[in-house]
Fold:
Amino acid sequence: MIEWLTWAQIAVAVVAGLLGVALGLLGRTPNDLTMGATALVTMLLVVQVVVSLLAPVFGNTATGSALEFWVYLVTALLIPPLAIVWGLVDRTRWSTVILGVANLAVAVMLYRMYQIWFVQVA
Amino acid sequence: MTTTTSSRSTGVGRVLIAVYGLLALAATGRSVFQLLDDFERAPVAYALSALAAVVYILATVALIMPGDVWYRVAWITIGFEFLGVLVVGLLSIFDPVLFPAKTVWSMFGRGYGFVPLVLPILGMLWLYRHRARVTPAAVSESPAV
Structure:
């Protein structure tokens, strides 16, 4: 994990999340903006997978449990694509809210991953 | 307009279902990790995590599926969650030795932003308002817009 990259990623996920919840509550159905933001969150998660696979090679290892970290990362990686599929199938404003909720959940999980990688002493 | 889909899976109910799905995923993820990592360390807490994960999955499915039976399953699973979060929440405060490791329900679900505490309340309200009658399906709920 790279610290600045992770923070940037959390920021993107939070913005995408708030955007989805707000636009959904305003009555917008999933559009290029909300779907695109969710796709961006997904792509950044893929980047995170690559970074986290390579980082230990350069001596940047998790301070906490690597297994727990990967369970979080793999689970997080499932969420935005599922929300995008939901948004394609169910064209209602609630799907936009769901896109938002999914991105917020990813933000929380990224923060947990950050803690596992950098903060834990265990 | 009558539809064959569950009246429980319309409108804002879809958000409820999605959040249930998320929690099911989160609880399953945690449970898988705990079972793989070190089950012996806290068998009670870890077994409970696994049980909670199964209940969340069942509740998610029950909310999606139409019909009386699933309606009852939804009540049972969501009621069980509510009981679980209250009992485990209290126990984790008064008898922390019993729960040396975290579960979804420890400290009333604090590790999950108290979502496990709030969600069953919203779920039960939603179920109460969508009793399994043959209602003119969700006239007030305009699906698109």
